[in-house]
């Protein structure tokens, strides 16, 4: 894959999608309260974190993930395949990786479903964007 053929705006837009989905997904009215319980996160611990570092690092890592998807997908796929491949990337690579670590960390199945589900949805939408916006 020729890196110059990539649509960098699509990659950035798909990266931003991971934040938009996360804002909704981890909202206390959706899965946020359950996630906090399953991960052992507390309000105090969350507030004590360096949010610039957290969000900045998360953006860079998400960008790298989406860039890698764009490189794997190429420019020949459409929206439907992009969404499917994004979902499969989220399920087969990311969620299963989270699941393996979670087993060793003795985390709950709910923890795996919440975090893995977030990536399946985020990457399906991101794949749709990459497949649509060449």
How would you characterize this protein structure?
By secondary structure, this protein is an all-alpha fold. The chain has one domain (3-132). The chain contains 6 helices and no strands. Helix 2 packs across helix 6 and helix 4 (51-73) crosses helix 6 (109-132). The longest helix has 26 residues, at 79-104.
Please provide a brief summary of the model:
InterPro entries: DUF1761. It contains 6 helices and no strands. By secondary structure, the protein is an all-alpha fold.
Relevant terms:
globular; mainly alpha; 6 helices; 134 residues
User: Quaternary status of these chains?
Assistant: single chain
Radius of gyration: 16 Å
Average the pLDDT over all residues and give the rounded result. 96
Beta-strand content estimate: under 5%
So how many helices? Answer: 6
Contiguous uncertain segments of 5+ residues: none
Order of helices and strands: HHHHHH
Report the principal-axis shape.
Answer: globular
Question: First CA to last CA: what distance?
Answer: 14 Å
């Amino acid at each position: 894959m020729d890196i110059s053929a990539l649509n960098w705006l699509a990659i950035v837009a798909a990266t931003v999608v991971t934040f938009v989905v996360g804002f909704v997904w981890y909202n206390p009215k959706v899965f946020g309260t359950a996630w906090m319980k399953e991960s052992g996160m507390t309000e105090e611990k969350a507030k004590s974190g360096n949010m610039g570092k957290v969000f900045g690092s998360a953006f860079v890592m998400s960008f790298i993930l989406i860039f890698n998807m764009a490189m794997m997908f190429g420019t020949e796929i459409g929206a439907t395949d992009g969404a499917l491949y994004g979902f499969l990337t989220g399920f087969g690579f990311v969620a299963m990786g989270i699941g393996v670590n979670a087993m060793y960390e003795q985390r709950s199945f709910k923890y795996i479903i919440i975090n893995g589900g977030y990536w399946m949805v985020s990457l399906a939408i991101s794949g749709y964007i990459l497949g649509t916006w060449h």
